[in-house]
TrEMBL record:
Keywords: Decarboxylase, Lipid biosynthesis, Lipid metabolism, Lyase, Phospholipid biosynthesis, Phospholipid metabolism, Pyruvate. It comes from Dichomitus squalens. Residues 1-25 are annotated as: Disordered. This is phosphatidylserine decarboxylase. Its cofactor is pyruvate. One of its GO terms (biological process) is phosphatidylethanolamine biosynthetic process. Its EC number is 4.1.1.65. It is an enzyme of class 4 (lyase). Coiled coil: none annotated. Pathway: Lipid metabolism; Phospholipid metabolism; phosphatidylethanolamine biosynthesis. Pfam families: PS_Dcarbxylase.
C-alpha cells in the first residue's frame, strides 16, 4: 500500500463502502469479470501497477478497468480509498491506499450468495475461491519471477534484512512473498521480561481486553463469537476457556513480510484447519456489519500453552482474498520462545487473531488507546503488545471449565499446577509440562 501523510489525506474523505458506492455497477458479473481480467492481467504483466496490486489512486495504469467498472475513476477522485494507521515508533498518522483487488472484492461481497454467470453460474463465494486459487497458481509459476523487481520497487521493500537478498535466486513470486529474514532481524522487545507478549507478525494491530469490546469498536460482523472463530460448538471446552477473554488482531498487507511467529514462550498443541471463504480482511470489510470475514474465511487454529502462566492461547491464522495457503513450519509438542517461527501465508493479505483467557494479558497502553479510536498501529514482529498479569503457573483450566475463577486455588497452587489441573489435555500438547522456560 502506498503511504500518504495524514495532512495530504485530509483533502478528501475516506470512502465508506456501501452497495451503492458504484452506482453505475448494477450487475455482480461486471465486478467478477473485472477481477477475472485482473488475474489474467497480472499473469501477463511484470509491472505490479498493471496487476491486482495496483493502488486505487493509480487506476489510470489499467485502462481495461475503466471499461469494465464505470465510475471507479470518479470514486478515486472524490475519496481516499484505503485506511489510516499509526506508526508506533513515531506516533505519525499515515494513510495507506488500498490495492484495487480488495476494493472490488468488497463490492462483490454485497452480492453474497448470488449466482453469477462468470465461471459457470457459480456463487459469489465460489468465484472468489476460484480466483484466489488461480492467482496462487500464477504466483507459483516460474514465470512469475518477472514481477518481483516491480513489487520490490513499488513497496520499497528493503533487501538488506533478507536471508536471501539476491532477488534473482527466488524460484517464483510466492517464494519471494514468504521470504525469510536474517536471524535477529526481528528482535524481541523486552526479551528479558518473562511476562512479555510480542507481536507475531509485521502487521497493523488492534487489541481489546474483551471480545465484547472488539465487537463494539472493530469487528462488526453479526455472527462473530469465540466459538465461531475457533470453529467449535458454543459451550464447548475450548469456547468456555476463552469466555470473557482478550483478543489481538494482526492484519498483514501484501507488501509485508509474511511469516508469522510465536507471541509467547510456550508449547505448541494441536492445529485445526477450518474451510471457508476467501473474503478480503481489509478493515472496511471487518467494520461492515453485514460481513463476517473472520468467521467465514478459511482459517487454521493453533492451540498453545503459555509457559509462565500455564494459560491456553489460541493462534488463529486467517486466509483472505487471493491467499493461496496457510503453512505451519513448527509442529505439535514443540517448545518455542517468542519470535520463533510458526509458519507463513502464501500470496495475499491475511490476518492473525490471538485469543487469551480472561485475566491473562494486559495490553500495552498505546495499543489500547489507538484501538479505542479505532485505528490500527503498525508493528514489527517481536515488538511488545503487553504483559502477563497472572501468577506463575497460575491458570487453572479445571476451575474455568467448572465455571470458577481462572487462577489456581491454594490447594493446587505452585509451579506445574496448571498441568496437573488438566490445563493442556484440552490443547493436545501430548502431556508435556510447560514450566517456566
Amino acid at each position: 500500500m502506498a503511504h500518504i501523510s495524514a495532512e495530504a489525506a485530509q483533502s478528501k474523505p475516506i470512502e465508506t463502502i456501501r452497495p451503492d458506492s458504484l452506482p453505475e455497477v448494477q450487475d455482480p458479473n461486471q465486478v467478477a469479470d473485472a477481477l477475472d481480467k485482473l488475474v489474467d492481467h497480472s499473469e501477463e504483466h511484470a509491472d505490479v501497477k498493471q496487476s491486482i496490486h495496483a493502488p486505487f489512486h493509480q487506476l489510470y495504469n489499467i485502462p481495461l478497468i475503466h471499461k469494465l467498472i464505470p465510475g471507479l475513476e470518479k470514486l478515486a477522485n472524490e475519496y481516499h480509498v484505503g485506511n489510516f494507521v499509526i506508526v508506533r515508533s513515531t506516533g505519525e498518522k499515515i494513510f495507506e491506499s488500498m490495492p484495487i483487488y480488495p476494493r472490488l472484492g468488497m463490492h462483490l461481497m454485497f452480492y453474497g450468495g448470488t449466482q453469477i454467470k462468470l465461471l459457470h453460474n457459480r456463487s459469489v463465494e465460489a468465484v472468489l475461491k476460484d480466483l484466489s486459487l488461480r492467482q496462487g497458481k500464477v504466483y507459483d509459476s516460474p514465470e512469475s519471477v518477472k514481477s518481483i523487481p516491480s513489487f520490490v520497487n513499488t513497496y520499497s521493500i528493503g533487501l538488506d534484512e533478507l536471508e536471501q537478498p539476491d532477488i534473482t535466486k527466488y524460484k517464483c513470486f510466492n517464494d519471494f512473498f514468504y521470504r525469510k529474514l536474517k536471524p535477529g532481524a526481528r528482535p524481541v522487545q523486552n526479551a528479558d521480561d518473562p511476562l512479555g507478549f510480542c507481536s507475531p507478525a509485521d502487521s497493523r494491530v488492534t487489541v481489546y481486553p474483551t471480545v465484547d469490546a472488539a465487537k463494539q469498536f472493530w469487528i462488526k460482523g453479526s455472527k462473530f463469537s469465540i466459538a465461531s472463530l475457533l470453529g467449535v460448538e458454543p459451550g464447548s471446552e475450548k469456547a468456555r476457556m476463552f469466555e470473557g477473554g482478550s483478543v489481538g488482531i494482526f492484519r498483514l498487507a501484501p507488501q509485508d513480510y509474511h511469516r508469522f511467529h510465536s507471541p509467547i514462550d510456550g508449547v505448541l498443541g494441536d492445529v485445526t484447519d477450518i474451510p471457508g471463504q476467501y473474503y478480503t480482511v481489509n478493515p472496511q470489510a471487518v467494520n461492515e456489519p453485514g460481513f463476517d470475514v473472520f468467521t467465514d474465511n478459511k482459517r487454521s487454529v493453533l492451540y498453545m500453552t503459555h509457559a509462565q502462566s500455564n494459560a491456553p492461547v489460541a493462534f488463529v491464522a486467517i486466509g483472505a482474498m487471493l491467499v493461496g495457503s496457510i503453512a505451519w513450519t513448527a509442529g505439535k509438542g514443540t517448545t518455542v520462545k517468542r519470535v520463533d517461527e510458526l509458519g507463513y501465508f502464501a500470496y495475499g493479505g491475511s490476518t492473525v487473531v490471538i485469543l487469551f483467557p480472561k485475566g491473562v494479558i494486559k495490553f500495552d497502553d498505546d495499543l489500547l488507546k489507538n484501538s479505542d479510536v479505532p485505528i490500527e498501529t503498525l508493528l514489527k514482529a517481536g515488538e511488545s503488545i503487553g504483559q502477563s498479569v497472572m501468577p506463575t503457573a497460575g491458570f487453572n483450566a479445571a476451575n474455568v471449565l467448572r465455571g470458577g475463577d481462572v487462577t489456581q486455588n491454594e490447594a493446587s497452587s505452585g509451579a506445574g499446577a496448571g498441568a496437573a489441573a488438566g490445563g493442556w489435555d484440552v490443547w493436545g500438547t501430548v502431556g508435556s509440562k510447560c514450566n517456566v522456560l
